[in-house]
Task: structure prediction
Amino acid sequence: MAEETYEVDEILDEFLKKQRGVKDTLKEMKNISELMVDLAYSAILYNNDELAEEVHSLEEEMNKLRYQIEIGTMLAARNPEQAADLEGILRVAAVAERISNAARDLAELVLRDIELHPALRAALEEANEIVTRIVVADKSKLIGDTVKHVRTVEKFGMDVIAIRREGEWILDVSDTEKIKAGDTLIANGFKESVKHFQKLAK
Amino acid sequence: MAEETYEVDEILDEFLKKQRGVKDTLKEMKNISELMVDLAYSAILYNNDELAEEVHSLEEEMNKLRYQIEIGTMLAARNPEQAADLEGILRVAAVAERISNAARDLAELVLRDIELHPALRAALEEANEIVTRIVVADKSKLIGDTVKHVRTVEKFGMDVIAIRREGEWILDVSDTEKIKAGDTLIANGFKESVKHFQKLAK
Result:
């Protein structure tokens, strides 16, 4: 969710609706954490505010997942023995969230315009392959294209590593996924490809 | 380095020898951090002590890199203006290390044998694809094989995601890399493949 705040009822509803187990929730936390670390470092390396902002959005998602795990374990505990069993999961969720908090703080440095050494900035401008954020406009030519097309289009292929759609993150982006208006794509590619796709996204 | 402690002189020597810039060091920190997060979560998800131990080894590597960045920036500062410019880099390195510390703490939970919920353990035993650590013995059949061979060998392909060799980590493992005696492979594959490769590694 892109919203800054969310309602307890809403999270609980979603949790109960999905009936997702702790294992699946942990797997999703894993995927989100890896993407956060990737984007936080990339934000620093390419001095890119947009990527830093996406790290914030992912951190909201992590908070929500931790909350779901907490609610889920509490609801699952029916007696003191079960509660003791479940306590380990709460600890895992707490430590896991620290990874995402640290990634958020790393991205925060970019948003606060900390001064990076001029030599580092110069080196970055020379970088060939970069990670970027592409927002798909309402009348973009990309709408309806598959991710496979974006990944393999002649000369200008970009690897789509994540999509944010209506506040939800898609992290395992399959080739058959179709691009929709309003999608935010996180993608990896050569500078020329990035320019090309920024045009197509408009 | 696999050793628990290391000498300041040794680190400084390595830094000066490599003449590696801050950008390359940050890129290496990025790669190591991503692998640490992957392995820390995998250690939890598969309840695997060996993966947790590798997270510790990677954290040593991160500490070394942070130290190299600190030494490098101090040596580069020749006047107050330059020193102010360089201060941002020190802050980046400090926050970056917090990510790896959190990943280490997550892995630590596995080594401390925290109790995970029985339902989670059961679910894990059903998992098809797992991350594993394979140590290549002196007379293993794998010695001399390329990583490409390991990745594509009929029925039993395993994706090698990292190699630890003589205390150094190889994180971008190319297809042409040859496997040596004593290598520790971090690899991803189906349960059957894991069993097969554990045999070959002996």
Remarks:
- The interface with chain B takes residues 21-23, 26-27, 29-30, 33-34, 37-38, 40-42, 44-45, 73, 76, 84-89, 91-92, 95-96, 98-99, 101-103, 105-106, 109, 114-120, 123-124 of chain A (CB under 8 Å).
